[in-house]
Amino acid sequence: MGLIGLTMNQQLVAAIAKAYDLDRTKVVFKDTAPKDAAQTLQSKQVQALLVVMPVSEKYLGMLRDIFPRSAKLKPGLILLDLAGAVAASARAYESYDLPKGTFRGSLPIPDDDLTTLRVPLYLVANKKLSSTVVTALAKAIMDVRRDLVGEYPLLAQIAPASADKDAYIPIHPGAAAYFDGEEQSSLDKYADKLFYLSMLLGFLASALAAAWKSMTRDASVAADRPCYGSSACWIKLRPPTANSS
């Protein structure tokens, strides 16, 4: 069996070989370059070709170009009926139904939805990263997806990660909050901090008022007392009157 990109897909080959017990049937995978794929099939050096690629018009066009249009060789797709079993044992992969007519041509291929394997790509964040940051990142990505999906159809395949507790890669709480519609507003985020800050400011204001009141009371009491010892006093001298001796 030929495989385009054998080196980078060794784990996928191992998962498929295990599910179908290909070692017992002595199936061998051969690394095949895209330019040699058609010739390799025609010369029967391989009986089938395994391709791992994005399902987008660009890459489907590249796959169609592998096969000469005038050749009698017509491509067909093989059902992976054990895709679910492969995904269960190798959780990096998912069972996937390829839509009818994905591989366009004179005859739509496949002629019905076809079960195969999907290799998802994950954007992974450190679990210690702030939920606020991850929520904003998830929102930005989905906004870009919405705005550019018409120009870049491949973006339509961007989807939320599984929120299941036993998911292969757990979803970050910040991303989960965004996709569940539970993202907090700025007021909600800082409500507790604002509450405690207002309490602190109220306490400080009361303390300052009490201190100021105490200081002004002490100053008025001191003004009514005579000067003793080394205390500095301002004495207003009045000029003598006519009755003074």
Notable traits:
3-stranded parallel sheet, 7% strand, mainly alpha, two-stranded antiparallel sheet, 8 helices
Secondary structure class reads mainly alpha
The main sheet orders its strands as 2-1-3
Q: Mean pLDDT, rounded to whole units? A: 79
Query: Major sheet, described briefly?
Result: 3 strands, parallel
Helix and strand run: EHEHEHHEEHHHH
User: How many separate helices?
Assistant: 8
Distance between the termini: 135 Å
Alpha-carbon Rg, integer: 39 Å
Instruction: Provide the β-strand percentage band.
Output: 5-15%
SS elements, strand count: 5
Question: Ranges with pLDDT <50 over ≥5 residues?
Answer: 227-238
The helicity comes to: 25-40%
Based on CA inertia axes, which overall geometry fits? elongated
Description:
The structure is a single chain. Mean pLDDT is 79; it is low at 227-238. Helix 1 packs across helix 4 (83-89) and helix 5 (131-148) crosses helix 6. The relative contact order is 0.08. By secondary structure, the chain is mostly helical. It is elongated, with a radius of gyration of 39 Å. Strand 1, helix 1 (10-20) and strand 2 form a beta-alpha-beta unit. It has helices at 10-20, 37-42, 57-66, 83-89, 131-148, 173-179, 186-189, 191-223, and strands spanning 2-3, 30-31, 49-50, 94-98, 114-118. It has a domain at 122-188. It has a 3-stranded parallel β-sheet with strand order 2-1-3. A two-stranded antiparallel ribbon has the order 4-5.
